């Protein structure tokens, strides 16, 4: 009797898991047009970063730390108003697994860079113009680090000429160089 209960429970669990995963997969697949449009909307300057700026993103492993920007992509492609906390958690987890299957590493970095939040606007190109009056190709490594820090807390730094931001950028640069084995 006990064995029957275990077998039936396992079968029900498998069916439930299959239903939930199927629902998540179909939810993800139904957003493919949005994903494709998002990738197409990335301007060339954010697609092909200059080597010194790209090196900052590669060394910091920022895109990997934020799961390829899966959460930002999810919020961009799906209206989540009125979605409960558990359903939202399920969507985030599913997208975290599926985004790397849909976009390759370079595409994930381009989308991540394009969706960087600077409060009033989005994208590394916007941040470069807003904070440094430069195009992406003109940014230094230090300025790229500052933009990463600003995008992580858009309301904290009103401008890029800030002693606290300079210290934070220097510390962050040391940290990523240490993690990359350069120090």
Keywords:
mainly alpha; Penicillin binding protein transpeptidase fold
Report on the architecture of this protein:
- The model has no long low-confidence stretch (mean pLDDT 77).
- The chain has a single domain (31-179), classed as Biosynthetic peptidoglycan transglycosylase-like (Penicillin binding protein transpeptidase fold), CATH 1.10.3810.
- The protein has helices at 2-29, 32-41, 44-47, 51-60, 62-65, 70-77, 85-102, 105-114, 124-132, 141-152, 163-179.
- The chain is built from eleven helices and no strands.
- With 183 residues, the protein is mainly α.
Q: What is the CA-CA span between the terminal residues?
A: 63 Å
Count of extended strands: 0
Which structural class do the helices and strands define?
Answer: mainly alpha
Strand content: under 5%
Provide the CATH topology.
Penicillin binding protein transpeptidase fold
N-to-C SSE string, H for helix and E for strand: HHHHHHHHHHH
* Rg result: 20 Å
C-alpha geometry: elongated
Note the total helix count. 11
Low-confidence stretches: none
Indicate the CATH architecture.
Answer: Orthogonal Bundle
CATH superfamily assignment? Biosynthetic peptidoglycan transglycosylase-like
Number of domains: 1
Please outline the major beta sheet.
none
Oligomer class: single chain
Mean pLDDT over all positions: 77
CATH class: Mainly Alpha
What percent of the residues sit in helical stretches (DSSP H or I)?
over 70%
């Amino acid at each position: 009797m006990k064995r029957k209960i275990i077998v039936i429970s396992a079968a029900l669990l498998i069916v439930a898991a299959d239903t939930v995963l199927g629902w998540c997969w179909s939810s993800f697949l139904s957003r493919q047009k949005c994903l494709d449009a998002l990738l197409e909307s990335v301007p060339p300057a954010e697609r092909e970063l200059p080597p010194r700026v790209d090196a900052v993103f590669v060394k910091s492993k920022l895109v990997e730390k934020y799961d390829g920007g899966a959460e930002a992509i999810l919020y961009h492609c799906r209206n989540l108003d009125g979605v409960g906390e558990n359903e939202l958690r399920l969507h985030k987890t599913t997208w975290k697994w599926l985004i790397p299957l849909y976009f390759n590493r370079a595409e994930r970095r381009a989308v991540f860079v394009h969706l960087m939040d600077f409060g009033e606007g989005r994208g590394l190109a916007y941040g470069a113009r807003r904070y440094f009056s430069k195009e992406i190709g003109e940014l230094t490594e230090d300025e790229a680090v500052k933009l990463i820090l600003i995008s992580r807390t858009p309301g904290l730094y009103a401008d890029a000429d800030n002693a606290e931001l300079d210290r934070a950028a220097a510390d962050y640069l040391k940290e990523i160089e240490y993690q990359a084995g350069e120090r």
